[in-house]
Predict the 3D structure of the following.
Amino acid sequence: MKKHISLILVVLLIASLSLFAGGKKESKDGYVFASDATWPPLEFVDENGNLAGFEVELIPLIGEKVGVKMSVKNIPWDTIFAGLANGAYDGVASGVTVTEERKGTMAFSTTILEAGQVVIVRTVDSAQYQSINDLGGKRIGVQIGTTGDFSLEEYPVIRRAYDDIGLAIEDLINGNVEAAVCDSLIASDFVLENPSYKGKLTVVGAPFTEEDIAIAVQKDNTELLALINKGLALAMADGSFDALKAKWNLL
């Protein structure tokens, strides 16, 4: 009996090692991607409490193209990369900028969007502040831990860090900061699409950084990365990728 039990344990051990060899495998529920749903139009919670946005729809589109289920779950930004590292989910699709530092700990898909950091000010102040260089010594709101946050390290401004960019925008409206900095893709939604801020906010100057946005996975998960890139290539070739960009006004 003991010999049979030992044999069973060995078989189970070999099966488990095979399961995890070469990167994390698809679970019975498919691949799950984390997304901080505070960045419209990329990812946000709509009026019905549902996740919505470009990347929220892009992930299942990629899965559809390669015949694998892929879904998105809402995860706060300040824990999003730690969760990826410890295997809480398979990837991150959350307006992630590709940086050399991040390449050290994770792998990135083909670029899905290009963006840059821009300055948002109150419209009444738009003649006073023309670019980031006009805001020396001024208070600028950013989302903590984002490339917008990091980009301000090179400028003599007073950073005000928030858990999400929407809070920074609210403080800008209320006069508690002189400006806010975020991705150009996000800024267009707040300034051009959000009826609550119509006429109140203005993007000044051109983007002062250049950034590639991509989907992140664990560094050694080559299998999933290949699936994502294959799905993206197929979606780009058949027009469904561009159609999704157009739907979310990302042309």
About this structure: The chain has two domains: 27-114+212-247, 117-204. The longest strand covers residues 211-218. Residues 27-114+212-247 form a domain with the D-Maltodextrin-Binding Protein; domain 2 fold (CATH 3.40.190.10).
